[in-house]
Structures are given as C-alpha cells and as structure tokens.
Amino acid sequence: MKSLLGGEFDAWLKFYNSDDVFRGLRVNTLKCSADKLREHIGFELRQTPFCLEGFYIPSDISGIGNLPLHHAGAFYVQEPSATSAVTMLGVEKGDKVLDLCAAPGGKSTQIASALGGEGLLWSNEIVRNRAIILLSNIERMGVKNAVVSNCRPDILCDKLTGYFDKVLVDAPCSGEGMFRKNSAAEEWSAEHVKSCADRQLKILNSAKRALKQNGVMVYSTCTFSREENEGVVEEFLKQNPDFEIEDSGVSFGRPTLDYARRIFPMDGGEGHFAVRLRKNGAEMSVPEVRNNPSKLPDFAEDFIGECFRDKPFGESFELRDNKIYAFDKPLPDTRSLSILRKGVILGEVKKNRVEPHHCAFMALKPEECTSFIDLDTDSEDIRKFLHGEELSVSADLKGYTAVCVNGITVGFGKASNGKLKNKYPKGLRTL
Fold first, then answer.
1. CA distances from 399 to 217, 307, 373, 405, 413 (A)
2. Is residue 154 a contact partner of residue 201, using CB atoms and an 8 Å limit?
3. Is 32 a catalytic residue?
4. pTM of this structure
5. Per-residue model confidence as pLDDT tens digits over 256-310
6. Which of 65, 67, 66, 86 is CA-nearest to residue 77?
7. Residue 420 and residue 393 in contact, taking contact as beta carbons nearer than 8 Å
8. Of the listed 32, 151, 157, 222, which one is catalytic?
9. Closest Cα partner for 160 from 113, 205, 212, 225?
10. Angle between the 230-239 and 190-207 helix axes, to the nearest 10 degrees?
C-alpha cells in the first residue's frame, strides 16, 4: 500500500485505524423515488459521487434491514463505492445485460433499475446457496425481466456466445477494500492474491465470449492489489487485442490505466476498482427462441384477472411444475443450463385453484393490483404484517389484497369478513 499510495499512505492508514466506515444505500427506482425515500425513511440521506441513486447513511443507524421500506424493496443496502461499476457500465433501456458473478445482488438490482423493466437482465452465480440469496433480492426489488442462473462462467458464456450488449464481471477477489468491515483480512495472503488474479483472468476470458461485437464489459473488484486489478486487465488486453479500455465519462475516484478508476477511503468509499472495456469487430447475430405460451386452465386465467389489473405481466405464461411463470422475453436455447428462475412466479396451481406467489405482488405497483391497502411505515399494522399477524381491514375488502407501505407493495394477504389473512413468507418475517 505504501508503494501504491506514496504520500497518501498515512491518510489511508488513518482511515483503516478508524471504526467509522462508509455506509450507504441505493434507492430502487423500480419501486421508489429518492424524494419519497427521503420523506419516509426517518434519517438523513447524503448523495454519493458514485451513482445518482446512491446515498450515505448515518453511521449510528442500526437495524436498517428490518425497516418496512427495506422489506418492500424501496432500497438496497450497499457500500457506496460498490455502485461505481454499474455506473461505468452505462446501462441503457433495452440492453441485454449479463451480471456474471452476481450474488448477493447489489449490482444486478442496480442494473435492473437502469433497465427500467425493458431489455433483459441475466444474473448468474456459481455458488448455489449464494444464487438463492441473489434470487431473493431480485424478488424483493420487484424485477420482472430477469433470468437467474447457477452456472459455471465458462459453460454459461459458451452457451450464450455473442448475445449480450453489456457484461459485468464483478470478480471474486481478496477483498482488501472490505477489511474494515469484515474478517476478510484473516484470509489474506500473497498466495491468495495470486490465485484470485489467476481466477479473475479465466473469468474474464469466459465473459468475453458472451459479449456482442462492439459490446461493453466492465471488470471490477473490491480489492486494492495491483495484481488483481491493473495486472489482470493488462494481461487480458495482451491476450485479447480486439478489446480496448475506453473512457466511461466518470470523475469519481482516481484514474489508472488512463480510464480505469480506483477508489480509496479518501475518495468517499471503502474501496473499489473498475474498468470499462470495448470489444471491437464485426457484428454477429444470435438466434433467439420465444417460448410457446402454455394453455392455462380457465380457473388460472380467472385468477390472473381477479388479482391483477390491465395485464401487468403481459399475456405470455408458462405452466411448469404446477407454477405459473410470466416471462415474455425471447432467449437463446437455454437447455442444459441451470436456471433458477425466468421472470416472475404468479402463483402455484393446487387442485382447481391458484395460490398467488409473493414474487408477483412484489413486482407490481398498488394500482396494478385489483385490491390493496396502504399502511404507514411507522404504523402498528405494518409491524404486525411483517411479523406474520392477521390484520383488521374494511369489511368491503374481499379476496387477495396487496399490502403496501407508503405506496410501495410489500406483500399480500387474503381479505374476508373484515380480516386479512397474512401471506407474508415465513422466511422473511421479522422476529
């Protein structure tokens, strides 16, 4: 670090001897605006330099994951500088974007916000239990247009050669930028840094295959070591002369390799590295196949009309393993790939009825649901709902009803005779 920072080493060391780490969140614009979050969250939000939706939060705030607005997916708790990579990726509506090392989902859900429900997000995680966490966060943030997979990068990218406009490789690393926050320092060694760099280069050489010609790839880490950052990029460019570093147009952090960016604690974040790479060459096309919609039984068609207004999930549904999925994006041939989810589960068929799924309500605005109630973030009713308790409601309410907090959907229940039977998933409930 002395050789890397020179005269700034003492300033960096001062940060690392401090317990006052940078803490932040990112507003989920699929479900909430920054102004609305400021109005209801109950503490000050200060803009970070790393993305428009990123904010610093006070260091003394605790239990933020238990807030009703967090349950509703209004925001994602995220280290401030971690939002820099997606900003540099420059996602546009309609893009097809691959997040190759996606768990737990901070950068994937940031990409989803930038897509605004258009285009395609493909989020992949090789470790199965981490992929399940990724899927949970995709659900909580109300993402409709995502595929979540649990594949090895080389297998996935070989299958999806030349398909994506943009690819993010937020690579597993030695985590030096996280040493103040967790126990990553206990696992550090020079050998670990070397093994990380070897693995990162292999992942990049897999990721390049999934990228269209003239597409953009961002490589990022949360470590400081030159071997895992500049060293990996330089070796990748040496092996792949059809790639070049390009200016992402950002001013945060500090430049390295001309247009790559390094972020140190002195720059307002715990630590990150990111570089934007462009793939040059002739365009190629990738064949896509649109799934044939399933013929749903009449009672399932009735269920969709009874629960949701104005066909918010379109008209393309797939009935698989007794679950109804909504996903209308054409895809390449995905057979042989381990896919956990395409789109949104609307419900599960049980005998001659359909039990709605939490995932469907999380992806909708209140007005897209046939029936809803709206609770205040400080109310006793929202506390009871998140705890799994029954609520008293108007006797006029009947059937499946969305539960919202300050206008943001957080789950659903079933109303009858002035009571709302709680359908909030047991694994998500507060203690």
1. 47, 8, 12, 19, 8
2. no
3. no
4. 0.96
5. 999 999 999 999 999 999 999 999 976 666 777 777 788 899 999 999 999 999 9
6. 65
7. yes
8. 222
9. 212
10. 40
